[in-house]
Amino acid sequence: MANQSIFHDSQGFLWIGSTSSTVGGNGVSRYDGQTFTLLDTDNGLADNSVSSIVETGDGSLWFGTRTGLSRWQNDQMTSFTREDGLPRDRIRSLAVDSNDQLWIGTSAGLARLNKGELTVFTKEEGLPHNYIHAIQATKNGALWIGTSAGAARYRNGEFEIFGQSEGLQGKSIGAIHESADGVIWFGTERGLTSFNGTSTQHYGTREGFAGKKVFDIDSSPDGTIWFGTDSRICRLEGGHIYPAPISHLPNSVQGYEAIYCDPAGNVWIATGFGGLLKYTESLASIDQSHGIQGNSVANSHVDSENNLWIGSQSGLSVIYDGNQLNQEGTKPIRDSVYLAYRHFGRSDGMPGNRISMIESDGKDGLWIGTGGMYIADDGLAHFQDGLIHRFTKREGLSSGRIHNFFPAGPDATWIATGVGVARLSTGLELVSNDPMLAQLKTFLNENKIKEGSVYDMGVRQISSS
């Protein structure tokens, strides 16, 4: 693969490397299905930008970074650099072959680590170029290497050039993948090329390719080829390239970096600025055409009855679970799948339409905050049993711009607003002279936190602007 920064290890953990070239990486995270555990330079990692992850037979995990190679074994990190014999510190790709040899692709050549001995290969040994983008070890014992000037196959101790004269379309090989049927897939600036051992097949603009490069390729259990370009995630089906139906993703998700198809058929996507994404075939895009109050969704919440509450810049929507087909107020999102929904705005008693937060009150109700960066005349709403109880500046809030709230035991709730903090007592009444407000003010002053800039409460420490 190219930048295999998503890796499923032998223990069942998912490892995700951060490789953002713009702002630098954040290290490598281990995901156990519920929580993430981060390893970075504080743990001995050579660099926080991790482009590739593999595992050798002894259970060691190897991380390729911008400034060296790191091994994680028995909760200990060891790093290797050019001083230890690598062609260069910048590691682009890693692979482990059928003999448990570690292959290391760098920006200045290829290295092989076998039983502690490091061997370096460059153009002098037969590579088409010294800049290695991708390495793929195959089931039959061969090794495919993608470079800036074509590909090469290493077998029986020799390199065989595989370029345009052999049917490869494109010059710079950004990704290589072997599918379950033994076909080798190459990703280039011109699309995908497959090689079945005797002939090649190209999939380019005529088949639907759009983009400047292919960064990674993987295949799902059903044989579908998934790949990522600089602008989208795509899949190849029936000889045609289709963009993956993931238009529901936020606009801030840019810079796709790695793709991994797990045994259950889920597709995991690592991004530069949007974190880790998980795509499943059952996921459908829900937007304004299906009934919600606007496509700019700021937050959502699933209540105890499995109803989905969606807050947007245009109001509050609820999508009910267990709805019936063809009733008034339903819209199909896929064949025979319908949503029943209802909207709430100012005309229904909400203090405002721009929803800033949705949280459970710990019982059967919801807290809904409204207001935006330049809107300070909305407020807080409590929603329960179809009734809306609202709090605005008229009821005593110092600001109608609601950032967050935090239950202070069974009898009160703290509210973080645009210009200070308020406290609600039992019975949904604002308490303006509660002695705890003085205590909080003292805390803010002692810690040099501006009273008018409290954005977060509870889970994280109160922060200042």
The first-to-last residue Cα distance is 43 Å
Q: What is the SS-derived class?
A: mainly beta
Number of strands: 40
Which architecture of the largest domain per CATH? 7 Propeller
CATH superfamily of the largest domain: YVTN repeat-like/Quinoprotein amine dehydrogenase
Report the portion of residues in β strands: 35-45%
User: CATH class of the largest domain, anyone?
Assistant: Mainly Beta
Shape: elongated
What is the CA-based Rg, rounded? 27 Å
Quaternary assembly: single chain
How many individual helices? 1
* Low-confidence regions: 247-254, 322-339, 428-444, 446-465
Number of domains: 2
CATH topology heading of the largest domain: Methylamine Dehydrogenase, Chain H
Largest sheet: spatial strand order: 28-29-30-32-31
Largest sheet entry: 5 strands, antiparallel
How confident overall, as mean pLDDT? 75
What does this structure look like?
It is a single chain. By secondary structure, the protein is mainly β. It has two domains: 6-279, Methylamine Dehydrogenase, Chain H, CATH 2.130.10; 288-453, Methylamine Dehydrogenase, Chain H. Helices cover 3% and strands 44% of the residues. The protein has one helix and 40 strands. The strands form ten sheets. Strands 28-29-30-32-31 form a five-stranded antiparallel sheet, with no helix packed on it. It has a four-stranded antiparallel sheet with strand order 1-2-3-4, with no helix packed on it. Strands 5-6-7-8 form a four-stranded antiparallel sheet, with no helix packed on it. A hairpin with a 2-residue loop joins strand 31 and strand 32 (337-344). The longest helix is centred in the C-terminal third of the chain and has 12 residues, at 435-446. 38% of the residues are buried. Residues 247-254, 322-339, 428-444 and 446-465 have low confidence and may be disordered.
